[in-house]
Amino acid sequence: MAASGRALRLLKAMELLKQKTTFDYGTVLSKVNLESVSNGTFQGWFIVDKSMCNMGGTLHGGYIASVIDVLSFYTQLSNTDGRMSWTTSMNVNYTGVARDGDKINVITKSLISGHSSVVETYFHTEKGKIVAKGTTSFLAAKESNQGFIKELLGFDVYEN
Hints:
Layout: H1 5-15, H2 23-29, E1 33-38, E2 41-47, H3 61-78, E3 85-94, E4 103-112, E5 116-125, E6 130-140, H4 148-153
Antiparallel strand pairs: 1-2, 2-4, 3-6, 4-5, 5-6
């Protein structure tokens, strides 16, 4: 897996989520295989399973939205100026379907970093067909809250 220094520290911190009962790990990170992480980008994949599907047997939009929210948070945190931030808005465009057993590639990319950041997330099939695209906006928490992620995961947002 290719990764920058900050991204490697973030991946190590994310490993600590396995020891905690969290939505981030239990719902998303336990199923998405990260292949490449660098400042401002994540690339990975997952295999659609029944727990991710709606009653029609296709990948549920709510699962897609969860992956977007979780991965985009860690993507913006991987930027050299990334901070503990809150999602302020998320827009998802669903453009295709994926079924149980399909491999879905996920790519995130920071468009804007800093106090107000924006991340795009793309989902596509192995054949390159776009399934969904999400755009997430974040607002950095107050300076007094920036230590939270260090307390929780041992990741210092001020260290690059």
